Amino acid sequence: MLTGNTAKILGIDDTHGTLAIGKSATLFVSEGDALDMRGNQLTHAFIDGRTISLETHQTELWKRYSGKYEGE
After folding, report:
1. What pLDDT digit, counting tens, does each position of 1-10 carry?
2. To the nearest 10°, the Cα dihedral for 13, 9, 45, 50?
3. What angle do CA 33, 17, 50 make, to 5 degrees?
């Protein structure tokens, strides 16, 4: 509703603002409160209907070295 009304005000509600076939959409799925950075865990992201990888250089390094220091 928030983005739908904004799109109507801007005059772009024919292509943006709600989830519908043929409209441009950016969507993210989060575990926890999306507005609370401490409890937010982003699980999926989509831009214009395409899945966006959430892998970064930092997550790759974390996966690589997370088990290295567990036994010490």
Report:
1. 568 899 999 9
2. 30
3. 75
pTM attached to this predicted model: 0.60
Tell which residue, 32, 27, 31, has the closest CA to residue 51.
27
How many distinct structural domains can be found in the chain? 1
| Domain presence at residue 15 | no
Q: Is residue 52 part of a domain?
A: yes
**Euclidean distance between CA atoms 23 and 42, whole angstroms:** 23
Enter the tokens of residue 63.
């996966």
Report if residue 59 sits inside a domain: yes
Residue 62 lies in a domain: yes
